[in-house]
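Suppose a colleague, Dr. K., hands you the sequence of a protein chain of 322 amino acids and asks what its three-dimensional shape might be. Before reaching for any lab equipment, you can write down a predicted structure in token form. Begin with the sequence itself:
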Amino acid sequence: MGCASSRVDVDPASHRALDRSSPPSTSAAVATSRSRRSLDIFHDALTSFREHFSSASTTHWDAAPCEWLRVRAASYFVDAKKAPPRERPLLTLRHVDLFDGSSLASDGDDARVDFCRTRPESWFRREFERDGGATTAWTFAMHFVNPDGANLVCYFQPEGDGAESVRDARRLCDWVDANSSPSFAKTLRRFVETDDDAYRAARVKLCAKLHPQSPLMLRKCVPTKPVLVGKRASTRFFRGAGDTEGYEDRYLECCIECGTSASAKYLYNMFSGLSARSDEDLAIWIEGAREDELPERVLGAVRLRRISPKCLTKLTKLPLVR
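The predicted structure, expressed as tokens, is then:
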């Protein structure tokens, strides 16, 4: 203590030189380190606060690139090789509906499927009714029916040369014949034209890519690995068959009922609790199960951002059009 308070006379110039060359004391370094950590903690908290209160203005969906994806190459059945998709996704994302359908649960399962045709809130139905479908392109809808009532519907439509004339399933297949590889054109025609839902369910493949900023627990539980949806959950398809208002073959809606298996329900319950802090890309395509159906091509891809119950539109019970 006495040394700390004593004074030693030195030359001022030498003292200034000593100040510049001497390292800071250990206690000063510790104090500086603590201050920096405190500032970092404050910055992280402020960022989280801003993100929380700006979530209302967050765009919760967008089209997604697929550079991270690997699909079956043409030689897959020889060497098991996978490669990045050779072509861009066939269909372009147009819209995503985020609905809370919990009020429809008492009406049975059929009240929460075939949204394209039966629900007035559906983006596709609103587009179709503007001019009786005269300018509405054929639409593929990927509909996730979740056990807590949340419904997520992604709408994809063709884009490119001649796409403006693709109004129904037949024209879609003709358009793909002219604008894609023969192998993929054959695969899509089989998928679209069949009446066998079991065949379709066994072919729809999904792969999710969690972004690095998503919660670590979620990234560990949802690996970037393709899955056949028909093996994980009950999957149903709708295309407006028999409809008298002109909807028949104007769309194909794939409804994945996520609560129909214990594993799917477990994953959804875990995901739903963390989805408000998660960003993920989702790619959808048809599995090439035979050599003449390769290489695989992506149908569509979507990027989902921070989806929570607050961004869902509540559905009310209305007379359903059947």
